[in-house]
Specification:
Elements (H helix, E strand, L loop, with lengths): L1 H6 L6 E2 L2 H13 L3 E2 L5 E3 L2 E8 L2 E9 L13 E7 L2 E9 L2 H10 L13 E4 L7 H8 L5 E8 H7 L3 H15 L6 E7 L2 H9 L4 E4 L14 H9 L3 H4 L3 H8 L2 E3 L5 E3 L2 H29 L5 E5 L9 H13 L6 E3 L16 H18 L3 E4 L9 H8 L3 E5 L1 H14 L1 H18 L30 H9 L1 H6 L1 E2 L2 E2 L2 H10 L1 H16 L6
Helix pairs in contact: 3-6, 4-20, 7-11, 8-11, 11-12, 12-13, 13-14, 15-16, 15-20
The chain binds zinc ion.
């Protein structure tokens, strides 16, 4: 009884106390639901917790009947009264709606995303919207900051989710776990001002600007004459510079850090200016739009050119970063297109020694012009290079993953609903040739065994070979959005299977993403 009263005497928001965890089940039982103990959070005069009624999750707000605090009015739900340990409580049973997510983020600030500057971090994209607790378990105790709401506009379109849903799903996951150490949110691969507007309105705090459409990949092989013409055509007013002034700044011996230098000649400069000049101007314009949009709200920026055809050389990285700086852009991370192949869902392809040398050079640019974090896109499953990156980046790193969590959802499914997994696998075979077009993959799907040739206990083995991983990786959009007679073919059944078996899914995620995070833990 004394302990129970203690819960209501908090002066500030206090999540996941031991007392709260031990008492949470009683409040759930009070309304016939099963509580998530870690979610119980005390606030002045009341508590909030998550509880489930079958597969439906509810937010419960509880306060003593005689003294319901004002903030309870911020939440919308059904009011009921229950007697727990002889004391009468008002319990508000609330849906996990957008308006309640907004109220939660306002009244329980730890459930709001925030900025983290240069802290070592991992992007843990969750395309299905039910994986956040598993992602939190993967980083818990590591000191690595999780970016839990992370989705590109392209993937929102492909998964039929809005920026608001992505943000709210992460919020509820954070609340469920009582994760008070903070999380980031990455509006990934933004290409237009409208992309910024939509994700800023949804509450995102990190914005990844992708000026890839403005990168001129032909610059690497263009003739001297073509380069001259192209460089004339650059947006010089956007760059706030002249060709002459830039040449003077770049055609010279450049001393970076760690004894690394670049003897930059005119040709290198011309190719870099043509390749990235327009991308720099576009990024600066996007940054300014963001500044005006966010006003006084804190935010952070990443610039990514990872999805371009040719690798970013050391000199090009230097050019891009120095130009952004000159134009007043402030950023926390930058994603070059690295040497070698960063295919989706599988390990790095390429020579490790060459990668190491090139990564060390990129870090020399970071040390000279930053510091800022190097962002590793398509960063999942790159187990062979993590140790190299971790050693050279000295903590200035952000590793971005997304699709791998979808693959782990399918691994869970193979175990809990083999029949549905078989349907999805067969469907993926039929879709692969169409769906692979916009992805960087190389799978030979003839090497993947068909569902009819696999026993139930062999199904997950499809996810243990690269060809199978890519087959299932690039088809996620079709799997999640294909409809038949107006209803989703797989989406609802997949989500239902994961909800029924959520602890199993969280555990699979914890193990798999834990392997991604472990190499970057400071020792
Ligand atoms: Zn990317």
């Amino acid at each position: 009884m004394g302990e129970l009263s203690n819960l209501f005497e908090a002066r500030e928001v206090r999540p996941a106390s031991e007392i709260g965890k031990s008492l949470a089940p009683r409040f759930g039982q009070g309304v016939g639901m099963e509580a998530y103990p870690s979610s119980l959070t005390s606030a002045p005069g009341g508590i909030a917790l998550l509880a489930r009624d079958g597969l439906t999750k509810n937010l419960l707000i509880v306060a003593p009947e005689e003294a319901v605090p004002g903030w309870v009015g911020d939440f919308h739900g059904r009011r009921t009264v229950a007697t727990i340990e002889g004391r009468r409580f008002v319990i508000l049973i609330s849906e996990l709606s957008h308006e309640n997510a907004l109220a939660l983020r306002a009244d329980f600030p730890y459930t709001s995303p925030r900025t983290f500057g240069l802290k070592t971090s991992a992007g843990l994209g969750d395309r299905l919207g039910v994986g956040t607790p598993g992602h939190i378990r993967a980083v818990r105790g590591t000191g690595i900051v999780p970016f839990l709401a992370q989705q590109s506009i392209r993937e929102m379109t492909r998964t039929h989710r809005s920026a608001t849903e992505v943000m709210d799903d992460a919020t509820w996951g954070v609340f469920q776990e009582g994760w008070a150490q903070g999380y980031g949110s990455d509006a990934d691969h933004l290409k237009t001002a409208a992309d910024i507007d939509a994700t800023a309105a949804a509450g995102f705090t990190m914005f990844t600007i992708d000026p890839g459409d403005h990168v001129d990949n032909s610059a690497d092989s263009a003739s001297a004459g073509d380069l001259e013409a192209k460089v004339e055509d650059l947006d010089w007013s956007g760059l706030e510079a002249s060709l002459k002034s830039l040449k003077r700044a770049y055609v010279k011996d450049i001393i970076l850090a760690d004894g690394i230098r670049i003897a930059a000649n005119e040709e290198m400069f011309m190719r870099a200016a043509v390749k990235y000049g327009a991308a720099v101007a576009h990024t600066a314009a996007m940054y300014r739009h963001l500044v005006s949009k966010m006003g006084r709200k804190p935010f952070e920026l990443e610039m990514s050119v990872d999805e371009t055809q040719t690798p970013t050389s050391t000199f090009e990285h230097y050019f891009v970063a120095k130009e952004l700086k000159r134009l007043g852009v402030k950023w926390v991370s930058l994603a070059p297109r690295f040497i070698g192949d960063f295919e989706k869902g599988i390990d790095y392809k390429g020579d490790l020694k060459t990668f190491e040398k090139s990564f060390a050079e990129h870090m020399a640019v970071v040390k000279k012009l930053g510091p800022y974090k190097i962002s590793i896109h398509s960063g999942s499953d790159k187990f062979s290079i993590y140790p190299i990156i971790a050693r050279l980046a000295e903590g200035y790193v952000h590793v971005k993953t997304a699709g791998t969590s979808y693959l782990e959802a399918l691994r869970t499914l193979a175990d809990v609903d083999p029949a549905l997994f078989r349907e999805i696998l067969d469907f993926a075979f039929a879709r692969y040739d169409t769906d692979k077009r916009s992805y960087h993959v190389s799978a030979d799907i003839d090497k993947v065994r068909r569902s009819k040739d696999l026993r139930d206990d062999e199904l997950a083995s499809v996810l243990d070979i690269n060809d199978g991983r890519q087959l299932l990786h690039v088809t996620f959009g079709s799997v999640l959005t294909t409809k038949k007679e107006g209803a989703y073919l797989f989406r609802e059944r997949l989500l239902r299977a994961l909800r029924i078996n959520e602890d199993k899914y969280y555990d699979v995620l914890r193990k798999h993403l834990g392997r991604h995070v472990a190499p970057f833990v400071a020792r």
